[in-house]
Amino acid sequence: ARRFVTLSIDGDESLSTDLAIVVDGAQVGEVRSVQRTPRFGLLALAVVDEELAVDGMQVLIGDEARPATVRPRPIDDGDRARRARP
Fold first, then answer.
1. What is the rounded CA–CA span in Å between residue 9 and residue 13?
2. What is the pLDDT of residues 2-44, one digit of tens each?
């Protein structure tokens, strides 16, 4: 089984979609979309094997082996910076 997760991607250079997600040399998922956000940096929506859908899990993306971290979906806005205005 697979699950959707958000990936927080290290670095500033954007990525394309449909890149492999790798853990310990094995492909465990794919990147579905990538977006740069002003608040959270470079994020991706990805599909990974269910057992890897754990907050804080470290993965690598694509042939360049870009480091990324699995994050909760949606990413928590703990300080409520996006709170609705009255």
1. 9
2. 999 999 999 888 888 899 999 999 999 999 999 998 888 999 9
pTM of the predicted structure, to 2 decimals: 0.80
Region of residue 28 (left: phi > 0; alpha: psi -120 to 50; beta: else) = alpha
Q: How many CA atoms lie within 13 A of 1 on its CB side?
A: 4
Contacts of 15 (CB under 8 A, 6+ apart): 9, 31, 34, 42, 44, 61, 62, 66
**Amino acid type, 61:** I
What is the rounded distance in angstroms from the CA atom of residue 59 to the CA atom of residue 51? Answer: 13
